[in-house]
Write a structure and sequence with these properties.
Largest sheet: 8 strands, parallel
Bound molecules: 6-O-phosphono-beta-D-glucopyranose
Shape: globular
Low-confidence stretches: none
Number of strands: 14
Helix content: 40-55%
Number of helices: 15
Strand order of the largest sheet: 5-4-3-2-1-12-11-7
Strand content: 5-15%
Radius of gyration: 21 Å
Structural class: alpha/beta
């Protein structure tokens, strides 16, 4: 067992998926509040009602022995219109949450932005406008001014790569244009603004709050070639660059990944930049790499893959690669491949490329858990999933990877991005479903008791 002393065991949530109270105490609307959720899935107005249950929920996290709790701040609770007036009740709420964590010795880890752009900014064009850089920097300044002395760990943008590649699925808005190349250009223009915003915020953090630590939080997982045929290997390198390295090369080294750059250039889709942008990106350095991991993926070269036309960058790019399923991996009930060894491979790869400490900010299994009559939830599949991943993380650490913490998704049940409340991830069951708001009572799942032992033994007892 190789987990270092002080390893940050804990769990994660995001504001828009857990808090609810979407119109309470001066909160403005975010893009998640106004979107039409897929049929049969819950709206994001009540969620797990963490807003009113945070004391009880954090007490349960403390009972599990959490060393950290990673949560996001809703931009619209702090600045209801994205810019302008600060909402004192929003500040108060998050100060209460932070204080509650500290009461139990839990380190709060804050994500500044997790898929919930203020609708007022989206209406003006959102991340497509250069002004979005200043808007995010302004929001981050407010967060540092209020919470910079009581929060040590900060994450900038959750899964910027998924926002870029899957915006329409996670409800953050996809760009639309009849011309595919124009679409591509707009997509990467938004991405460039996020990269610039992130760079400035990391710099601001280090200048003004030298005791704080900050990093990006993309979703990183290795892309495998479907065979050892050289064309498949090239296809895997292409998708690795587009899915993973673009985001970390920019955040850590301040450079644009050359494979992505040449692809954008070929399609006349290079983002517009201002003088000095690349220099600014180079000046900003993260203290660690936070990343979310669920599963790897597998690609075939475009020529040989015999699948449907890809609908998004995540599924493939004409002429480059196509995502195919991996015949060696089992799947969750929701069809997600399970690959613990891929987790170890991903940790190794990130560490060899960037040599920065890593923080695993999401990993977990979504399932339709059943609340038994005796109040128990026997989520053995989740225990199995987490155990297998922890074993591989342990091995990666013993092979020299620096890992600071492990924060599974999710600390408590919450609403999935697009598959509703029935797709549960938590250690703590919340009594509601997609249609019916139940008692909202909290129950400890079997994984709750199991994870408690894992934390108490610093990862030695995984039984
Ligand atoms: C990550 C997101 O992509 O995966 C979370 O950061 C999300 O917000 C999680 O909930 C699981 O995905 P899903 O689609 O099952 O909710």
């Amino acid at each position: 067992m190789s987990f270092p002393d002080g390893f940050l065991w804990g769990g994660s949530t995001s504001a828009y998926q857990s808090e609810g109270a979407s119109e309470e105490d001066g909160k403005g609307k975010s893009v998640q509040d106004v979107k039409e959720p897929p049929e049969g899935t819950a709206r994001f107005d009540i969620c797990s009602d963490f807003y009113h249950h945070y004391k009880e929920d954090i007490a349960l996290m403390a009972e599990m022995g959490f060393k950290e709790y990673r949560f996001s701040i809703a931009w619209t609770r702090i600045l209801p219109n994205g810019t302008g007036n600060i909402n004192p009740k929003g500040i108060k709420f998050y100060q209460n949450v932070i204080d509650e964590c500290h009461k139990y010795g839990i380190e709060p880890i804050i994500t500044m932005f997790h898929f919930d752009l203020p609708e007022a900014l989206e209406e003006k064009g959102g991340w497509l406008r250069r002004a979005s850089v200043d808007e995010f920097v302004n929001y981050a300044r407010v967060l540092f001014n209020y919470f910079g002395n009581s929060v040590k760990y900060w994450l900038t943008i959750n899964e910027q790569n998924m926002l870029t590649m899957q915006g329409s699925i996670i409800g953050t808005g996809a760009v639309e244009d009849e011309d595919e190349d124009v679409c591509l250009k707009k997509t990467y223009q938004k991405n460039h603004h996020m990269l610039m915003a992130q760079a400035r915020v990391m710099k601001m953090c280090h200048t003004n709050f030298p005791d704080c630590k900050i990093g990006p939080a993309p979703n990183i997982s290795l892309v495998y070639p479907v065979t050892c045929k050289p064309d498949d290997v090239l296809a895997a390198q292409d998708f690795n660059a587009i899915r993973n390295w673009l985001y970390l090369d920019a955040a850590v080294k301040g450079i644009y990944n050359p494979i992505v750059w040449s692809y954008l250039k070929k399609h006349n889709a290079l983002p517009e930049m201002e003088n000095g942008d690349l220099e600014e990106m180079k000046e900003a350095k993260p203290d660690f790499i936070a990343f979310n991991y669920y599963n790897t993926c597998c690609v075939a070269s475009w020529k040989d893959a015999n699948e449907l036309e890809p609908q998004s960058l995540m599924q493939g790019i004409r002429g480059m690669y196509r995502v195919v399923s991996n015949p060696y991996l089992p799947k969750t009930a929701f069809g997600w491949e399970i690959d613990p060894e891929g987790f170890r491979a991903t940790l190794r790869e990130i560490y060899s490329r960037y040599h920065l400490p890593m923080m695993v900010t999401e990993n977990g299994l979504g399932a339709e858990d059943v609340l038994e009559n005796d109040g128990r939830i026997h989520d053995t599949y989740r225990i199995q999933y987490l155990r297998d991943h922890i074993v591989q993380m342990d091995k990666a650490i013993s092979e020299g990877c620096e890992v600071m913490g492990y924060s599974p998704w999710s600390a408590i049940d919450l609403i999935s991005t697009h598959e509703g409340f029935r797709k549960r991830y938590g250690f703590i069951y919340v009594d509601r479903d997609d249609v019916k708001i139940g008692s909202m009572k909290r129950y400890r799942k079997d994984s709750f008791y199991w994870y408690k032992k894992v934390i108490a033994s610093n990862g030695a007892d995984l039984k």
